[in-house]
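Exam revision sheet. Question 4 asks you to relate a sequence to its structure. Input first:
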Amino acid sequence: MSELITGAGGQLGRALASQFPEAIATTREELDIADKESVEAFDFSSIDTIINAAAYTKVDEAETPDGKVAAYAANRDGVANLAAIAGERELTLVHISTDYVFDGNKQEPYREDDPINPLSVYGQSKAEGEKLAANVAKHYIIRTSWVVGDGGNFVKTMMSLAEKDIDPSVVNDQFGRPTFTVDLARVIDHLLRVAPEPGTYHFSNAGEVISWADLAKEVFFAAGYDAKRVSGTTTAEYFAGKEGVAPRPKNSVFDLSKIESTGFLNRHWREALVEYVEQELAN
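Answer key, structure tokens:
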């Protein structure tokens, strides 16, 4: 028996395929989770665990009519299709969710049992997916934030701007910690091996809480550029005059005590960032 990875073409999917080399890794072309017939026709006979990394993540586009349909198709209906199979076959379902299920108004780090209140269509669609995944007897819902991996992401964007001699102005009133996909894949492996109580777990890399502007400065420094080239701005100023912008949670900080209580040895985000930047520079 082995794992099935959905969304294998994405940042997390690639890291999962590396972490679980014996798994069956599928892209949307091979398994469209939003298509009930596609899911029902798939051969699950050798699968004991579904790791769902497939999602619609275009936060701003989800605010458009077409984007809303696509977001709910992947993030709600797709999870419903996988949950039905997992329940029927008594499989373990690992589902990835997001800090966007919270409104970001809490002053302290978010715990797993804090009430959700998504501000955006994307967040609402992911919240609906969580409810469906939770119906599976053996489930792990992992909420994560500020994802960085093999693909387009904030760190790569900042590295590109630094190289092009562009001095960015970056939001300094949204706070959180980055999550590197290599570590997220490790924590999923850990949960499946240790098998703690099913439920919801919060995960990001460890370390001090920072703003997006702080992270940008760290990227510039790690890549060998002057961090003072990065300036800060408020969310309101950054998006002023722009239409179709989804609201973002200002506080995306997770309380990590539950996942750490399972024995997982987390990494500081700075250690992960330096490793990531060095690998990107080497490539």
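Marking note for examiners. The first strand starts at residue 2 and ends at 6.
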